[in-house]
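Title: Comparing notes on inverse folding

I've been comparing how different people in this forum approach sequence design from structure. To keep things fair, I'm posting one structure and asking everyone to reply with a full sequence. Here's the target:
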């Protein structure tokens, strides 16, 4: 990685042209000059000229082979937010494409009641723009990557907040888009500042173990290479290491030390195509023993982000354990850069392709945005959003053998809505591995799930909203629960018997109005200090009604409360 201070516009253009021959050099220079002028009096926390940040973001995107418009937007991405420039200025000077990309990553300037509300609304704005043009999120990821690389200049509280957000949201988005190289850089960069002691300890240990394993891995690599040549299979073998944050997660999840991780280092075998992958698998299983339960075939069943590879952990010479990953050259490129590999087929007018890519990779975010309209609790929205894009997934099957990939912790309700909205809206019975189970049963890898559809709409319980994981399921459940409450809307008549006193009627009506319950009619009769107050209310929520009854009974002089 080049020193971020050394990047110049010449470097950006050179890298862009190396990766993409359709680059418009003059337009990029024009964007750079405008950004330099607008940011001329601004400095970063490091004391450097502000333009260093946009230059580095544009260089990251140039390395990824992105087009002229995205590189221009990277150079201009902070001018609307941090200078007097407007969306219209960018639009006139650089066109609609660049202006919309800049707008997509520009934070909202209005004041919010809480940090969560500000985050929720800014994510919503960004994801709406992303649905229109997926390049928005690629730009945002590059922006975040450079910010992570320069966190040393910020206060400790800001380092923690940005690192946490990066690990919880941006790294999982990169993973969801298949951009594993970007994901690893974001995770390790954030890990360094979020848990500095753990980072240093793991890095030191990995470096030590790498030196210890170097000779063994080199010998193993040479042996496999020799055997593959004998079989006339051409392949490139690389020695790779798990990223540091992934190692940290494994240690925490399994409560183990780094020495107990079997697949700390692995051999990546890259070959021509799918048939060769399986031939290599056969060769490996002939010369080495496999550890039972470690075989994973992501070529036969690709992950949601289109990742394909064969994984297995083998026992080498002297009982030393090592992992191999087998893939083709195309599979390896897709694993590294993900969705960017499809950009040549998506740009610029093939709207159908853009929508398909968004739907296949981030459809959960679309459902989360819909949920945001129904649930205004920012924390609840953010948690649902994070659940949708977390790395962990569960693989389950329909009775016909079709595979469904859902967020880890998903229920049979999530499964039903994954199949079709009509199925989720009309669940009659749920069978998991041929056994009738509750609708909110958590699904495990390999479960065969069958949903029986009924005539009536599913009778959802409000507390189930906490159990389901996907925004699609939550959105429909909220709508059906609201619909059910409307049907339940009724008029109830209260008769309250009390000994009359000053302000008695006022105190009774206050309880209803403070609980947002409309009073349709009211009449009060008093005979010899015995008061009988009769009111009719517009009743909507059982919980409100229960609270009201309890409060009415506590009013001084109230003797009895009846409901008709």
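Reply #1:
Here's my take.
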């Amino acid at each position: 990685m080049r020193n971020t201070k050394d990047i110049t516009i010449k470097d950006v253009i050179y890298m862009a042209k190396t990766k993409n021959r359709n680059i418009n050099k003059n337009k990029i220079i024009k964007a750079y000059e405008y950004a330099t002028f607008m940011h001329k009096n601004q400095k970063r926390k490091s004391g450097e000229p502000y333009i260093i940040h946009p230059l580095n973001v544009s260089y990251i995107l140039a390395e990824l082979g992105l087009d002229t418009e995205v590189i221009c937007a990277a150079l201009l991405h902070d001018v609307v937010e941090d200078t007097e420039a407007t969306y219209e200025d960018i639009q006139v000077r650089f066109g609609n494409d660049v202006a919309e990309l800049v707008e997509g990553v520009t934070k909202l300037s209005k004041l919010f009641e809480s940090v969560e509300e500000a985050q929720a609304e800014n994510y919503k704005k960004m994801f709406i723009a992303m649905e229109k043009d997926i390049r928005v999120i690629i730009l945002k990821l590059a922006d975040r990557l450079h910010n992570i690389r320069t966190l040393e200049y910020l206060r400790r509280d800001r380092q923690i907040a940005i690192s946490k957000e990066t690990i919880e949201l941006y790294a999982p988005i990169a993973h969801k888009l298949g951009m594993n190289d970007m994901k690893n850089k974001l995770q390790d960069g954030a890990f360094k500042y979020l848990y500095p002691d753990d980072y240093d300890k793991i890095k030191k240990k990995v470096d030590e173990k790498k030196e210890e394993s170097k000779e063994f891995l080199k010998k193993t690599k040479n042996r496999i290479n020799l055997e593959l040549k004998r079989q006339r299979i051409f392949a490139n073998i690389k020695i790779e290491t798990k990223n540091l944050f992934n190692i940290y997660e494994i240690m925490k999840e399994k409560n183990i030390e780094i020495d107990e991780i079997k697949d700390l280092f692995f051999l990546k075998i890259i070959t021509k195509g799918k048939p060769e992958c399986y031939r290599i698998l056969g060769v490996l299983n002939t010369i080495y023993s496999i550890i039972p339960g470690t075989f994973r075939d992501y070529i036969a069943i690709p992950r949601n982000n289109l990742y394909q590879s064969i994984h297995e952990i083998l026992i080498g010479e002297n009982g030393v354990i090592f992992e191999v990953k087998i893939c083709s050259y195309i599979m390896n490129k897709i694993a590294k850069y993900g969705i960017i590999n499809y950009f040549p087929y998506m740009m610029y007018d093939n709207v159908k392709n853009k929508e398909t890519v968004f739907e296949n990779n981030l459809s959960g975010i679309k459902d989360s945005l819909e949920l945001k309209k129904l649930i205004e609790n920012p924390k609840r929205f953010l948690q649902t959003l994070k659940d949708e894009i977390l790395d962990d997934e569960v693989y389950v099957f329909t009775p016909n053998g079709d595979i469904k990939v859902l967020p880890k912790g998903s229920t049979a309700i999530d499964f039903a809505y994954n199949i079709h909205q009509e199925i989720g809206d009309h669940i009659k019975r749920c069978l998991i591995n041929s056994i009738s189970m509750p609708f909110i049963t958590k699904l495990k890898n390999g479960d065969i799930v069958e949903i029986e559809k009924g005539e009536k709409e599913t009778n959802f319980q409000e507390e189930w909203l906490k159990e389901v994981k996907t925004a699609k399921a939550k959105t429909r459940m909220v709508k059906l629960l609201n619909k059910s409450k409307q049907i339940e809307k009724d008029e109830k008549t209260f008769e309250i018997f009390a000994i009359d006193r000053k302000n008695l009627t006022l105190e009774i009506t206050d309880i209803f109005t403070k609980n947002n319950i409309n009073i349709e009619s009211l009449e009060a009769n008093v005979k010899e200090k015995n008061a009988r107050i009769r009111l009719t209310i517009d009743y909507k929520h059982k919980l409100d009604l229960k609270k009201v009854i309890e409060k009415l009974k506590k009013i001084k002089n109230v003797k009895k409360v009846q409901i008709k």
